Amino acid sequence: MERAASFVQGATVLPAVVYCGAELLAPGRSWHDGMERFLVPEGEAGRRFAECFASPLAKVRARSDFTTQAWRKLGTNVAGNGLAALTGRLTDALRAPELGAVARALVAECFTVGAVEGRRSTRPMRPPS
User: What is the average per-residue pLDDT within 74-85?
Assistant: First the structure.
């Protein structure tokens, strides 16, 4: 948030985690199931954000432990999106044992860094098998 502050001329910066189901099917062709969920920190800015986006299409949830939620999402993105981009395959390729092991290792590394930044573990990480 601090890095963005210089660009917004005093406006409130609200971090958000966005869960938006979309996947590249082929070059120039994607699938999108709609905006589903935003996670924001608890507080006045989060409440105002939820009011702005109140609709059946977008669910906004305020979280007291936003840091953990943000690192959980980053872990998912690091593994799923990174490996899909590197292999040119869809995220279902992570079910393959060799990619699954790499994905688990990437998530574990991400969560290790997240713990230093204040992420609280909500469930234990399984070591890569």
Answer: 86
